[in-house]
Amino acid sequence: MVTVDGRHVALFRLGDDFYAIDNLCLHKAGPLCEGQIDGNDVVTCPWHGWSYEIRTGTLVQDPRVGVSTHDVRIEGDAIFVRLSD
Length: 85
Description:
- By secondary structure, this protein is an all-beta fold.
- It has a single domain (2-82), classed as 3-layer Sandwich (Rieske Iron-sulfur Protein).
- Helix content is 0%, strand content 44%.
- It contains no helices and 8 strands.
- The strands form 2 sheets. A 5-stranded antiparallel beta sheet has the order 1-2-3-7-8, with no helix packed on it.
- The two termini are 18 Å apart.
């Protein structure tokens, strides 16, 4: 988890790529950064089991909603996250 302009963001590495999504589950604001990641690149909130696609932020149980995704840029050893909204 990183904080960008006061906002909690979960940062994930999938292979050689990095992805950033809001860290707060839509259900009860559970910490997505502490969730388990399955083989389909889905993270499950440790509090109540809501699952999100890491690449898109889409809620698996209801694809009409999800958490915000954010742009990630790598420069040398530094990782930069730009908030989307």
